[in-house]
Design a protein that fits this description.
Elements (H helix, E strand, L loop, with lengths): L13 H22 L4 H27 L5 H40 L41 H24 L3 H33 L6 H33 L9 H26 L1
Helix pairs in contact: 1-2, 3-6, 3-7, 4-5, 4-7, 5-6, 6-7
EC number: 7.1.1.9
GO cellular component, one term: plasma membrane
Keywords: Membrane, Translocase, Transmembrane, Transmembrane helix
């Protein structure tokens, strides 16, 4: 690199350990799905190992950054890496939204006798396509009793997440302008909003199972509902943990007005999660 040097990280054990931890977690998860609770201990140990590796690996990266080892080329590498990571997340959720749209646009009408594959209606001649699907074609599967009104808890959570993007942006601008106290305050508010979202979604899930009959066994509606909202909720939990770590670093005096990519990366992730929720609110709850 002209006018500088290219930082080459030292040999690290973390990638290998991360692969082993992820492998153990997925083996445990697969065993749990196939054989029941026998796979739970392996999955939990794998998850704890993943968290430990992430913590120690990020600790090393922070120490290297604080030591001044990184240059502009490394900054670009981090930005490209985070950009590709978010792109992979876009494709991750695109697959789930694609499933939802496929079921609603093609599969259900075919079972009702419409379209090029309407012959599928011979399987269940009395089936009538509708969405939300309250009465699955197979009588052995009990559909939900009722669905959520989008204008209660889902709307509250939408307001919370949109507000959190605003407070995070204010915190980011405060950091860029050198107003660290303002940055800490608004970042703390963002964390509280994230925790509020998680709590409300927990209440919603409890209501779904106990009062609405919306479960993973309640036909394709229940399956797609929990697939989309569950993975999104997991991302909110991860994002909230990331923001907590960033808040702790801000309290310790880390970052400067022109050198704070970790803060920016967390903000990118959080804004992405917010955009996904707007899609969920629109296509899972409203339409």
């Amino acid at each position: 690199m002209s006018g500088g040097s290219y930082y080459v990280p030292a040999s690290s054990k973390w990638p290998v350990l991360a692969s082993l931890a992820l492998g153990a977690m997925m083996v445990g998860a697969g065993t749990l799905l196939v054989f029941g609770v026998a796979g739970l201990p392996v999955m939990v140990l794998g998850l704890l190992a993943v968290l430990a590796v992430m913590t120690l690996w990020f600790r090393d990266v922070i120490q290297e950054s604080r030591s001044g080892l990184y240059d502009a080329q490394m900054d670009r590498s981090f930005r490209w890496g985070m950009g590709w990571f978010i792109f992979s997340e876009v494709m991750f959720f695109a697959a789930f939204f694609g499933t939802l749209f496929y079921v609603r646009t093609f599969a259900l009408p075919w079972l009702d006798g419409e379209g090029a594959k309407g012959v599928a209606a011979l399987l269940w001649p009395d089936f009538t396509a509708s969405w939300p699907l309250m009465n699955p074609p197979d009588a052995a599967i009990e559909g939900p009793h009722e669905t959520f009104s989008p204008w209660h808890l889902p709307l509250v959570n939408t307001i919370i997440l949109v507000s959190s993007s605003i407070t995070l942006t204010i915190a980011h601008e405060g950091l860029k302008e050198g107003y660290r106290r303002s940055a800490r305050f608004w970042l703390a508010v963002t964390v509280l909003l994230g925790l509020s979202f998680i709590t409300i979604q927990g209440v919603e899930y409890h209501e779904a199972y106990t009062h609405y009959g919306i479960t993973l066994e309640a036909g394709i509606y229940g399956a797609t509902f929990f697939l989309l909202t569950g993975f999104h909720g997991l991302h909110v939990i991860i994002g909230t943990i990331i923001l907590m770590a960033i808040l702790a670093r801000v309290h310790r005096g880390h970052f400067s007005a022109d050198d704070h990519f970790a803060f920016e990366a967390a903000a990118w992730y959080w804004h992405f999660v917010d955009v996904v929720w707007i899609g969920l609110f629109t296509f899972v709850y409203v339409f």
